[in-house]
Amino acid sequence: MAEPDFVPETRFAVPGRIAVSNRAAALWQTATLTEVRRETPDAATFRFAVPGWAGHLPGQHLMLRLTADDGYTAQRHYSIASPPDDAGHVELTLDHVEDGEVSGWFHTIAKPGDEVEVRGPLSGFFAWPGDRPALLIGAGSGVVPLMSMVRHHRARDLSVPLRLLVSARGPEELIYAREYGSETTPVFTRQAPEGTPVGRLAASHVAPLLGAGQPPDGWEAYVCGSNAFAEHASRLLVAAGQPVDRIRIERFG
What we know:
- Helix content is 16%, strand content 31%.
- It has a six-stranded antiparallel β-sheet. It has a five-stranded parallel β-sheet with strand order 9-8-7-10-11, sandwiched between helices.
- The longest helix is centred in the last third of the chain and has 13 residues.
- The protein contains five helices and eleven strands.
- By secondary structure, the protein is an alpha/beta fold.
């Protein structure tokens, strides 16, 4: 059987709406590192105090800038992990990328009290305001913007349905493992707890959520992960009946 036609959109394909004005989002602000939390052997959450932060929507990202003593600068886009109600603070969860210029600094040098610059929030296409049922699918650090949505859902005690499918190589690599609840189904691709099947995200994970149990008006699907994962997960969604125009994708790599 031929695979269904699918042309994924990128996160910049539609302007969408953002939580603050474009003018405010364009301003660089000083962010002071206040806390570092280890999530997995290769990932950690970095919490920043940003007194002038004007807010964001779950799923948005920011631009971060490091400046060396000699004036050299490095800039990176990072998804925001914290919920909008965490006023004056933002959290980023970063993988330690081999030879990564910025992630390497964070994982080996950064300490509370260090300052960086941030601006945003950026991109409204992948944002979830909390006003529609959300089916979230992520792999590895692709779960970061999705976790902002989960935290927002909990903080506001929203009644709108939300489900999360998150893929990781094994339990040790599962970012935010301590926070997941009944809304989350983990999928382990290489190693799993006893009694849990091992394998990549499959139709058997997606199809039940798009059958008789889906919300009356259907889901808004959010997919985040590597290029290969985003393509794979999107094809599973379409094959299970999810409308293409209700799939939002953020990809990396």
